Amino acid sequence: MAFWNWLKSLFSKASPSVEVQQAQEVIQRHELDPAYLEAKKHLGKTERDSKFNAWLSTYWTKVGLKNYKTIVGSSFAWCALFFFAMNSNVGQDVIASAGAKRIGQSGYEINWKTEGIPQSAGVWKNSSSCSSGTGNHITWADGDCSAADLLKPKATWAGMGGNQGDAVKRSIYCAKGDCSSSRDVICRVFVTKKSLIRKVTKSVNCSGSASNESTR
């Protein structure tokens, strides 16, 4: 009898610790944009993939460019098209545009200089100046970046999106135009729904070495 009581006591002590651990794991998770998660399914796809090209090209008509039939070539920058397609696939509304600067006006803006950039937020960036009509790009933040880290000299951040080196991939960008290999600047950070707004106090999987890959 004493043995069974002892055995029962072991299980009664173990169960709460497992429950507490599970609760802590839930607390540590953050809601991520469904469109970002949808985009992750296409990681590694390139514009030279004929099936991917044909599928994504069907969205040109939905952004008002019915004569466009491909995503290959310098005239067919497709970062905004991919961003629109992923949001459309999960039933979220963003501005229907093939322009990164235009679609970058979607959703609820986050002041990244005070709140940081939460993973899965949309980020519109430019290769030199936010007032420029060229060099614009739209992507999703691929990690949590605190404001304190982003304001440091030569700070970088990770973006995951389409038309990054002609592919869907993770890339590293300069935050404020002061990096030795890049003059990228963040123009606007936003989320598609209010529940995704949160302040980032600690950077996780945020940065790396910036490069000058093509985004058209």
Shape: globular
Oligomeric status: single chain
The number of domains is 1
How many whole angstroms does the radius of gyration measure? 21 Å
Mean pLDDT: 89
Helix content: 25-40%
Counting H and I runs of at least 4 residues, what is the number of helices?
7
**Kindly, what is the distance between the CA atoms of the first and last residues, rounded to a whole number of angstroms?**
76 Å
Strand order of the largest sheet: 1-6-2-3-4-5
Major sheet, described briefly? 6 strands, antiparallel
Q: What is the succession of H and E elements?
A: HHHHHEHEEHEEE
Strand residue percentage: 15-25%
Low-confidence stretches: 10-16, 18-27
How would you characterize this protein structure?
- The structure is a single chain.
- Helix 2 (34-40) crosses helix 4.
- The protein is built from seven helices and six strands, in the order αααααβαββαβββ.
- Strands 1-6-2-3-4-5 form a six-stranded antiparallel sheet.
- The protein has 216 residues and is α+β, with helices and mostly antiparallel strands.
- Helices cover 30% and strands 15% of the residues.
- The longest helix has 27 residues, at 2-28.
- A hairpin with a 7-residue loop joins strand 4 (156-161) and strand 5 (169-174).
- It has one domain (31-196).
- The termini are far apart.
- The chain has helices spanning 2-28, 34-40, 50-57, 79-89, 100-103, 112-115, 147-150; strands at 108-110, 122-126, 136-141, 156-161, 169-174, 185-191.
Which features characterize this protein?
single chain; 216 residues; six-stranded antiparallel sheet; 7 helices; 30% helix; globular
